[in-house]
Amino acid sequence: MAGKLMHAVQYLCYGGGAAGLKHVEVPVPAPSNGEILLKLEATSLNPIDWKIQKGMLRPLLPRKFPFIPATDVAGEVVDVGPGVENFEPGDKVVAMLSLAGGGLSEYGVVNEKLTVPRPPEVSAADAAGLPVAGLTAHMALTQTAGIKLDKNGPQKNILVTAASGGVGHYAVQLAKLGNTHVTATCGARNIDLVKSLGADEVLDYKTPEGAALKSPSGKKYDAVIHCAAAFPWSVFEPNLSEYGKVIDITPGASAFWTFAVKKLTFSGKRLVPLLLIPKSENLKYLVELVKEGKLKTIIDSKYPLSKAEEAWAKSIDGHATGKIIVEP
Ligand SMILES: NC(=O)c1ccc[n+]([C@@H]2O[C@H](COP(=O)([O-])OP(=O)(O)OC[C@H]3O[C@@H](n4cnc5c(N)ncnc54)[C@H](OP(=O)(O)O)[C@@H]3O)[C@@H](O)[C@H]2O)c1
Prior knowledge:
The chain is 26% helix and 28% strand. By secondary structure, the protein is α/β, with parallel strands linked by helices. The strands form three sheets. Strands 3, 4, 5, 6, 7, 14 and 15 form a seven-stranded mixed beta sheet that branches. The chain has a six-stranded parallel beta sheet with strand order 10-9-8-11-12-13. A two-stranded antiparallel sheet has the order 1-2. The longest helix has 15 residues. The chain is globular. 45% of the residues are buried. The structure holds NADP nicotinamide-adenine-dinucleotide phosphate. NADP nicotinamide-adenine-dinucleotide phosphate binds next to helix 1, helix 3, helix 4 and strand 9. This is Enoyl reductase (ER) domain-containing protein. InterPro entries: ADH-like_N, Chloroplast_QOR, ER, GroES-like_sf, NAD(P)-bd_dom_sf.
């Protein structure tokens, strides 16, 4: 591939939104030690991608400009670097690129450690939805909320907010693999969809009951997988069971404050900020669930790479139902 050029979409500085994305021809990257070069078939967007562009992770990310964003990809192995043991050219895989990005392009380099095989039953688009959104839902439920996804374990009442979004739609389905009663919030247009994903009861977030996060059946939540924007603690508090946890995947300053106060006062009810730590064994597990038909990726929309800025604008808009996919 040395010297070959590829189509990629990058930005040159912080800010600018969709208009800040530029289509360029750049050299195909070469895989180094432990890395794999993929011909990309699908890339999914996550809000973190445009948040990095906005400068919300400044000065950590991006590490340098110009920057090719997006991390969640599915594709075919075309070359492997030294030391790669488990993959060879021709293998279909799903992978998570490092936060150095590279997903909005025709080819991308991934680390073998965050790459898993993709069986033929799982489409590239369905697989590309999984890394950030699926792994976050999985981590929140299994690691933080302590749900066993084999129905073994005590019954727990779970609330998933923004259940129509990328993380939320996986969280509802995964939660129902455990011994759970799931309440979910979403907009009126997605109530039937979220019910079809397995939610036992669904609240329209624009109604007074939805805004108050009140379970229609009067359940108190043992865990809230909080995927919507910030809510004051006073909204969560009356809805939690004695040892109920709010797992906040978009924690701001007030969430960290609540986390500290609840910990220092030995409160039974807690707020837990969550940051994804991706693990390949969990990604493999999610791919297997999709293969078995136990988990599905709801696809909001698909865009060719030539229209990546439309996909970007859709993600910034914040009203996707499921995942936004870009296809090189
Ligand atoms: N901590 C981590 O490691 C981590 C990992 C992944 C994601 N995140 C963060 O988690 C958040 C969610 O990510 P995502 O990918 O799921 O986002 P997303 O797909 O963009 O979420 C969009 C969905 O949220 C719904 N929604 C918006 N506000 C709502 C509300 N108040 N109540 C109920 N539903 C609401 C929208 O419904 P309508 O269209 O009907 O409004 C839409 O369907 C983002 O802030 C993201 O950055 C953090």
